Amino acid sequence: MPSFPDILPDMELPKNTWFVIAAYNEGKRIGRVLEELSAITPNIVVVDDCSTDDTYDVCANFRCSLVRHPINLDQGGALQTGNEYALSQSAEIIIHFDGDGQMQLKDVPAMIAPIVNGQVDVTMGSRYVSGNNNVPTTKKIFIHRPAIYLQWFLTGLKLTDAHCGFRAFSRAAADKCVIRQNRKAHATEIIELVARNGLRYCEVPVEISYAHYGQNFRKGFVILRDIFISKLSK
Amino acid sequence: MIKLSLAQYVLLVFVAYQLYSAVSGFIRKKKIFFGMLWSLFFWLAAAAVIIFPNITQLAANFLGIGRGVDLMIYVALMAIFFFIFHLISVTQDHEHKITKLAREIALNNVKPASDKNSGAVIDNTKNTDGPRTN
């Protein structure tokens, strides 16, 4: 079994680092991710969000903790379940990782280093910090850019990326950032929680590979609707 | 003697039923006193408007709105928006409760990591909905 430093030579994975993976119908892709991850740590919790495919069965073949929602809650709900499980297992650092292979394991050291060093409480992956990304131009102009400005308007935090999904939290930060938005608006909610709780944060350049889907216009409107409703009902 | 149209009679029957519901709800302890008082005030005001429609014209003049019927439309619109807002709040509240419940069920049935994790799974929770993408 390869050790963490072999794969990620820059640093060692701190002992109580947990990976949280929200998975819904990822049966075809999650195996590859877990194969890589479970080789370096058993501290992985996969939250199967009531998939209708064989996601659970595939995950059961790997060294990871498995949680299965009895009903589909969506991504935000699954991530919060994962956070709660990781916290119950004494996690000191929690990393949100995708189950579809879009995120790269090589970016993990850079994501957790500022937390390990005590510089920040939360790190957020960004596809735009380095300026070197493979984000499709239409997506960049019509989805990401407006989302960044909307997020700035709603939270007061101006980030270079709005919904990357690659995040790392210290234990204290994960404890404070309780996600209540079950659907995709959780990404904006997390940033709002970071601002409201006065948590220290930084963006870290990461590489996201666009093998298949991502956010589209329709999902963008669903996010807007959820944010609007949550603001109304507060 | 005030002459009422058929529509007014029908509406008054509906109001009478609402008044009865408010009082009986309080008696059966399904409503608090203040809630009953509020319902009585609202439905008695509605009855007054049904019997004396000109009241709305007086109120409209007082508020600087041209016609009584315009005032009713504005009030109705406000009531509809309030009702929608209330429904959204209730729906959100239910969603949070269901989420909490689903999470608790899930966290009570965790399959912990072990070196011998293998594919045998008993799954009686699969839903039959079509595929959705997270």
Describe the model.
The complex is a heterodimer of chains A (234) and B (134). Chain A is an alpha/beta fold. Chain A has helices spanning 4-7, 30-38, 55-59, 75-88, 108-116, 137-155, 171-176, 186-196, 217-232; strands at 17-23, 44-48, 65-68, 93-98, 122-126, 167-170, 201-205. The model of chain A is unreliable at 1-7 (pLDDT under 50). Helices cover 68% and strands 0% of the residues of chain B. Chain B contains 4 helices and no strands. Chain B has helices at residues 6-27, 33-51, 54-63, 68-107. Chain B starts with 5 loop residues before the first helix and ends in a 27-residue tail after the last helix. The model of chain B is unreliable at 118-134 (pLDDT under 50). The A-B interface holds A 22-25, 42-44, 47, 49-50, 52-53, 56-58, 60-75, 77-78, 80-81, 84-85, 88, 180, 182, 213, 229-230, 232-233 and B 85, 88-89, 92, 95-96, 98-99, 102-103, 105-107, 109-115, 117-121, 123, 125-134.
Compact summary:
The complex is a heterodimer of chains A (234) and B (134). Chain A is of the alpha/beta class and 234 residues long.
Compile the SSE list and pairings.
The complex is a heterodimer of chains A (234) and B (134).
Chain A: H1 4-7, E1 17-23, H2 30-38, E2 44-48, H3 55-59, E3 65-68, H4 75-88, E4 93-98, H5 108-116, E5 122-126, H6 137-155, E6 167-170, H7 171-176, H8 186-196, E7 201-205, H9 217-232
Parallel strand pairs in A: 1-2, 1-4, 2-3, 5-7
Antiparallel strand pairs in A: 4-6, 5-6
Chain B: H1 6-27, H2 33-51, H3 54-63, H4 68-107
Number of continuous helical runs of chain B: 4
Structural class of chain B, by secondary structure, is mainly alpha
Secondary structure class of chain A reads alpha/beta
- First CA to last CA of chain A: what distance? 50 Å
The pLDDT mean of chain A sits at 85
* N/C terminus separation of chain B: 67 Å
Rounded to an integer in angstroms, the radius of gyration calculated over CA atoms of chain B is 26 Å
